[in-house]
Amino acid sequence: MKEIEKKYEEKRILVTGGAGCIGSNLIKKLSELGAKEVIILDNLSSSYIWNIPQANNIIFVEGDILDDEMLKRVFKRKPEYVFHLAAHFANQNSVDNPETDLMVNGMGILKVLEYAQISGIERFIFSSSGCGVYGLDSKMPFEENDISIKLHSPYQVTKLLGELFTNYFNNLYNLPIVNARFFNVFGPGEVPGKYRNVIPNFIYWAMQGKSLPITGNGSETRDWTYVGDIVDGLLAMGVKKEAIGEAINLGSGKETKVIDMANIVNDLTGNKNGIRYIEARNWDVKKRLLSSIDKAKRILDYEPKTSFKSGVEEVYKWFVDNWENIEKSAEF
Description:
Layout: H1 2-6, E1 12-16, H2 21-32, E2 37-42, E3 58-62, H3 68-75, E4 81-84, H4 91-96, H5 98-119, E5 123-129, H6 130-133, H7 154-173, E6 177-182, E7 185-186, H8 198-207, E8 212-215, E9 221-222, E10 225-226, H9 227-237, E11 247-250, E12 256-257, H10 258-269, E13 275-278, H11 294-300, H12 308-321, H13 323-329
Parallel strand pairs: 1-2, 1-4, 2-3, 4-5, 5-6, 6-11, 7-10, 8-13
Antiparallel strand pairs: 9-12
Helix pairs in contact: 2-9, 3-5, 5-7, 8-10, 8-12, 10-12
């Protein structure tokens, strides 16, 4: 890993959507590794300025990936790497707002790719979704060559569309791209809210003494992956030559039951109000999620290090330390 990390010294790196959970953790790491500039482009539509790491080599630009003037501004700084994390986030959000989802996740990545291709960058890493591009007709554990076109939300559709666009730029222009397929990422830096992930929402509710709502019966599983492990995988994707042109799963390679997650959260927070069961959402049809990380191990030397329980403990500590800001920012 040290050899990979050294590659980012004195480099200029653009991170779109850099104020979110994955972005803020990636930016902090890149800054610590001695990057010359870490440029953030984020419109703060689902993130908050207080969550952005502060350092002399971190430059924050508040703006939208659909805005050509903003894209010209950040690419004028001549980034050598682009980590494209900006997205219209969450399945339910995309069901409620499908046109916005298509604009941000479709037109947005197309615009960023166009500027990246003109700029001649060294690597373009796209945040795709392992939870999105695999369907009910894909076999578990999900392997990279077994994607589906039978999808259940606009978010899943546009994440697959993003991969098609990156592959197109690789095929036609030889742009060095990598598609990172994330599985159920969690960690410090994700503020709870209506369209946010279940772990920050459960911790937020548990800290307020509320019962935790489980859709289904709790035996459903997810491949929750700690953000620190995701960051390690992304850094390797920016450096490993064998990764160019590939789609690679970044998961934990382990299943955890939703009921077990809820019990861990309640135990950590001392919440006595337990759980309750509610009806599953129409798009939520995958009862199990499990990634194959064999390809990531082979190409990236990827090896998740953080256990699920340890990761949840880190999130809880972050909540305690940032409770005032979280309470002000959470939107339900």
